[in-house]
What does this fold into?
Amino acid sequence: MKKLESTLLNMVLVLTSVAVIMGGILALVNHLTEGPIAEQKATALADGIKTVMCVSDLTVASTDTVKQTDAKGKELTYIVYNVCDAKGEDLGAAVESTTGGFGGDLKVLVGFDTEGSILGYTLLEHAETPGLGAKADNWFQKGQKGDIIGKTPAEPLTVSKDGGQVDAITASTITSRAFLLAVNNAYNAYVGALNTDAETGASKQVKN
It folds into this structure.
């Protein structure tokens, strides 16, 4: 077999061929894993809703998409899952809220009862430092140092360093502020979903 000449044209052709083949392989892998990943996320969300609402037998009666404008004029989107128990009684809602943490986006799912009190929360996604910011998963749970369970964020929750009532994660004040902002925003979105005319900053609500 004749050896391919080492010319610039040949090298470009070889590199292009390799790039096309690798692109095809990556596209195939992405296609094969897309379904299982989506299913895994859906399962994690369903389990998360049960966790934050503190009820295992529940139904998501409806889903609202609430858009709000923050202090910097940026439009943010929140997903509100309105929840009922097995008898159809309103339990409140679980709200997805995302803010920027120390290492990247911090996505929180917060459960509220019908009065707006926090029932529970879970972190859906985060990129915080292991052992520090990542402690947000447990730090603010019931009985822990930064316990927010049972509180109603009608008056925004803030860390004690800022004159608030919540102890920040040790050496992770930025993450703590981002987490509490996500919780406060989730509360505003919940109130906004109940009444778009409420003074929550809600600019638009889309019913699904």
The beta strands are 58-69, 75-85, 90-100, 105-112, 118-125, 202-207. The two ends are 64 Å apart (CA to CA). The longest helix spans residues 8-53. The CA atoms of residues 68 and 203 lie 5 Å apart.
